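Title: Request for sanity check on Response regulator prediction

Description:
We are preparing a figure and want to confirm that the structure record we downloaded matches what your pipeline produces today. Could someone re-run it with the sequence below and paste the raw C-alpha cells into this thread? We only need the C-alpha cell string, no images.
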Amino acid sequence: MLKTILIVDDSRFMRTFIRNKIDSSLFCIAGEASNGLEAVDQYSTLHPDLVIMDITMPLLSGIDALRRIMKLDPKAKVIMCSSLGSEQLVIEAIQFGAKEFVLKPFFDDLNEKLKSVLHY
C-alpha cells in the first residue's frame, strides 16, 4: 500500500514541483494546503502518513502548524522545507517534532528522505 503525503506550501508552483519530485510508485499525494491553517485542517481530516511543509507561510507559519499537528498526533511525521538556510529555524523545527529538514530547491534526495522518515 502506498504511503500518503500532504504537501503544504503557499506557492502553487512549489507544491507542483514537490508533487512532480515524489516517486508515485511509492507515495500517493493525499492532499495539498497553501497555508498553516489549511495544513492543520487537512492533517486532521486526511491523516496522511507524512507531511512536507514550508516554514514561511501566511496565516499560520509552518513552525506553528507543526506544533498544532504534533498536539493532534504526537507520532506525526513532518519534513519541513524552506528556502531560508537559517540554523535557528532548523533547530526550532526539530525541537517541535520535525523528523527532517530540506532546503529549497534542493529536492534531489527528497524520495530518500521520505523513505527514511517512513522507514521504507
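Thanks, this matches our download. The mean pLDDT is 91.
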